[in-house]
Amino acid sequence: MDVSIIETSSLGDRSYLISDGAVGVVVDPQRDIDRVLALARDRGVRITHVLETHIHNDYVTGGLELSRTTGAEYVVPTGDDVGYQRRAVSDGDLIDAGPILLQVLHTPGHTHHHVSYVLRETTGGIRGVFTGGSMLFGTTGRTDLLGKEHTEELTHAQYHSVRRLADELPPDTEVYPTHGFGSFCAATPATGDSSTVGEQSKTNPALTRDEQSYVDELLAGLADYPAYYAHMGVLNTEGPPPVDLSLPKPVDPDELRRRIEDGEWVVDLRERTAFAAGHLGGTLGFELSDSFVTYLGWLYTWGAPLTLIGDNEDQVADARRELVRIGIDDLDGAAVGEIHTLVAGTALRSYRVADFAALSEALREKDITVLDVRQRNEYDDSHIDGAINIPLHELADRQSTLPNREIWVHCASGYRASVAASMIDRPDRTTVLINDEFDNANDTDLTSTT
């Protein structure tokens, strides 16, 4: 028996293919199911079952389409009123896939109906447990995604669910979570790349704290999460349509300029320093990296026309794959090529890129504004004296509060700051992007704590 990991690093999630002989079972697949199908072909298995641990809030599932494409049985926890045929499973149910046997454990907390799947050997032993958003590596799934009115109840439930897993499973049981590799579905950052139930008993707060301490700490540590989460549960409950990974239609420079002038969403995928060196005024810079889909989805006006600018078609295709994972299916086109070929008679804009050492020098020489676009908990932990803190996801609504003078923008590593710089860039303002690790600010005399 083999458990293969399908990593989606941009969303901080994992899907799994369990294979034994010619049989395959998939757990929590992402929307772009071609990766799963290719892996199944490589393993020489036929997918007989597709399992969901819960109705996901951070991505659009590929489970429904995968089950229809392969003829596999689609297994979803009971309790949610979904808009498609599936096998609804409850605590204690068994999924018999020939050589692969999985037992359902109800583990509420991340959602009300969340389940984990215990992978059993045919000899009676336990191979592992697929924990979804329950027991993660050194943390647990967040409990506030269904609304504030449910959060405290779900937090207590999460504590007992993780304890149940630890109580009922052997210490050497491998833990296979869906979330926790950078996902905002984790209550706090996860640690490590693999783990067992026994290892979690020493590090997981649900297993090392008393119940009230765990609840209080989790609630106090919950930070903001991406706005697009509000759409994921709805799409997954209704049943997502088949995925489309085809390239969007090409857009010529004149049409591109019209869209920019009309205030449409035109997103430049190029590397952040390339955008700073030369870009079309009125476009937004979202470098295509692991952070791309989270922050574009967070800031995007849901359903608005969206056009992409890329170096080449491969870059646009990669962005489309990322976007369909969160349900942004309708792209209005893309323009590719060297940026100077897309100007349509207008001049390119640019701004300076610097580091924290340069900021320290600038603050001694002139009167400037420092804009910190990290989340509030990051700012509270350590920040630059005198900096204005506006989290990136609040910047669109608060731009008018910024002073009309030179602004230096920073975050923790440069990505969020690069998006923010593109948002506030305008002809009558000097913008400087700090493309640097915030840890380097501590090597200067800039930082303090509150």
UniProtKB/TrEMBL annotation:
The keyword rRNA processing does not apply. GO terms for molecular function: metal ion binding; sulfur dioxygenase activity. Residues 364-447 form the Rhodanese domain. It holds the Pfam family Lactamase_B. Keywords: Metal-binding. One of its GO terms (biological process) is hydrogen sulfide metabolic process. PANTHER family: PERSULFIDE DIOXYGENASE ETHE1 (PTHR43084), PERSULFIDE DIOXYGENASE ETHE1, MITOCHONDRIAL (PTHR43084:SF1). This is Rhodanese domain-containing protein. The lineage of its organism: Bacteria, Bacillati, Actinomycetota, Actinomycetes, Mycobacteriales.
